[in-house]
Amino acid sequence: MIWESMIGQSVIGEIVIGQSVNELYAWAAIGVITLAATTGDVLLAHSMRRVGDVGELWRTSGLFSVVGRILTTPTFFLGVMAMGVAFYSLLFGLSWGNLSLVVPASASLTFVANALAARIFLHERVGRRRWLAALLVGAGVILMAL
Amino acid sequence: MTFKKYLVLAGVTVFSTLGDSLLARGMKEVGGVSLHNVSGLLFAILNPWVAIGILLLLAFFASYMSALSWADLTYVLPATSLSYVLVALIGRIGFHEEISPIRWLGIACIAAGVGIVAAGPSLTPARHHDRSEGLSQEAKS
Predict the structure, then answer these.
(1) What is the ipTM of this complex?
(2) Would you say the pTM of this structure is higher than 0.80?
(3) Domain spans, chain B
(4) Distance between terminal CA atoms of chain A?
(5) Chain A partners of B34 at a C-beta cutoff of 8 Å?
C-alpha cells in the first residue's frame, strides 16, 4: 500500500514536472519569438522605408526594379534572418505549448515592443491614437488567451 | 489610402491567419519536436499542411512588405491584427473550440484598436521628413 501510493505520487510528480518544464520551454520560446520578431519588423520596416512606395515604383519602373531595389537593401536580409529565427522559434513553441498560448502571448508582447522600437529606431510619431491602438490590441490578444 | 491599399492590408490579415492555422494543424500531425531532434523540423516541411502553410506565409510576407513601403510599422501592425480574431473564429468553426465571454471581450478590444488606428493617418509627418532627408543625403553622396 505504502509503495503503491509512493509510486503513484512519484508518477504524478513526474507528470507535473514534465508539464511545467514544457510550459517553461513554451515561455522561453515566446521570449525569443518576441525579441526576434520585433528586431525583424523594425529592420524590414527600415528597409522598405528606404525602398519607397512599392506600388508607385512598380508603375514607374517595373517589377524587376522593385525586386532589385529590395534585394540590394542590406537591412532587408538582416530582417529576414531575424524573422527566420522568430519563425523557427514559433515552430518549437507550437510543439511545446498550445496554439492558443504561444501565438497570442508572443503577439501581444510584440505589439507593445514594436510600438517602443518604432518610436526609438524608426522615429515614427507614436501619438495617443497609435499607443491606444497598440495597447488595446495587446490587451485584447491577452484576453483571448485566458 | 486607396481601396487597393486596404486590399493589401486585408491580404496581410487573411494570409497570416490561414498560414498560421495550417502550420499549427500540420505540426500537430508531425508531433513534438525536441531540441535533441532538430532534424524533425526539416521533415516537418514534407507534411502537406505545413507546406501549404509556408506558401501562404510567403504570400503574407509579400503583402506585408508592400504595406510597410507606404505605411508606418505602428499603423500596419494594429491595422492587420484582426488576424487574431480570425484565428479564434477558425478555431471555433474548424476545431469546435468554445469562445468564452472573456475571449469575446478580447475580440472587442482588438476590433476597437483596429478601428482607432485605421481611422488615423497611415503615415506620420515625421516619416516624410526622414525620407526627404535620406534622399538628399543620397543625392549628395
Answers:
(1) 0.73
(2) no
(3) 3-140
(4) 40
(5) 95
